[in-house]
UniProtKB/TrEMBL annotation:
It comes from Jeotgalicoccus halotolerans. It comes from the Bacteria. One of its GO terms (molecular function) is deaminase activity. One of its GO terms (cellular component) is cytosol. Pfam families: Ribonuc_L-PSP (PF01042). This is Enamine deaminase RidA (YjgF/YER057c/UK114 family).
Length: 109
């Protein structure tokens, strides 16, 4: 049997890791990423600052995971965004647009 259709869990040192879970699971040409928090992968701590700084860190972590499985941000087909306060969505969208200059993938907020 070919390994082409095997599920391949992956981790990268460029994004935070958590015990007993993987950052991504790939199958064929499809990769499913796990949730990424605004945690600095070097310090293992929540980044300081407000919603913009934390959004940037979470998206930087996502980018690191995506690139570790030989994809780019533009390959994303769906994003779920969770915020504590809906009033922060304008700030989140501002940072989000920086990571997707050609247009953002569909998202659930």
């Amino acid at each position: 049997m070919s390994d082409y259709n095997a599920v391949a869990p992956t981790n990268t040192d460029n994004a935070p890791k958590f015990d007993e879970s993987f950052q991504s699971a790939s199958f064929s040409h499809y990769s499913n990423l796990s949730a990424q928090l605004p945690i600095n992968p070097v310090t293992g701590k929540l980044v300081e600052g407000g919603i913009k700084e934390r959004t940037k860190q979470a998206l930087t972590n996502i980018k690191a995971v995506i690139e570790s499985v030989d994809h780019v941000m533009e390959d994303m087909v769906k994003v779920n965004i969770f915020v504590k306060d809906l009033a922060d969505m304008d700030a989140v969208n501002e940072v989000y647009a920086e990571f997707f200059p050609e247009g953002t993938p569909p998202e659930t907020k």
